[in-house]
Amino acid sequence: MCQCLKNKKTLYIFRCFSDLFLLALIQQPISVTDEEITEMVLFPTINEACRVLDEGVVARASDLDVASVLGMSFPSYCGGIMFWADTVGSKHIYLSLKKCHTKI
């Protein structure tokens, strides 16, 4: 768990938490399902993809689908990350991201 700081020379400096803090986190057992792991990994990616669409960096969601399949090796049978997000549902994604954010 590090914070990334950018200085004037565009170098990145990482400031990490103490080892005692990390040890305390590791010693607390948690149980997560496969679905929760998938959500923790992919939902922030979907959130960022929506931000890219909103800012006009890409023209269509299908462009992100192609990029996710070819660039991230997202399973093509799922149709791409944005298509998959549509099948999951925006309300579920929003509530899951909100729940994860409150835990942090």
UniProtKB/TrEMBL annotation:
Keywords: Isomerase, Lyase, Multifunctional enzyme, Signal
Cited InterPro entries: 3HC_DH_C, 6-PGluconate_DH-like_C_sf
3-hydroxyacyl-CoA dehydrogenase C-terminal domain: residues covered: 38-99
Keyword Signal annotated: yes
A GO BP entry: fatty acid beta-oxidation
Statement: the UniProt record of this protein carries the keyword Lyase: yes
UniProt-listed Gene3D superfamilies: 1.10.1040.50
Molecular function per GO: (3S)-3-hydroxyacyl-CoA dehydrogenase (NAD+) activity; isomerase activity; lyase activity
GO annotation, cellular component aspect: peroxisome
Signal peptide residues on this chain, from the entry's feature table: 1-26
Superkingdom per UniProt: Eukaryota
Pfam families: 3HCDH
Stated name of the protein: 3-hydroxyacyl-CoA dehydrogenase C-terminal domain-containing protein
Species name: Gossypium darwinii (Darwin's cotton)
Upper lineage: Eukaryota, Viridiplantae, Streptophyta, Embryophyta, Tracheophyta
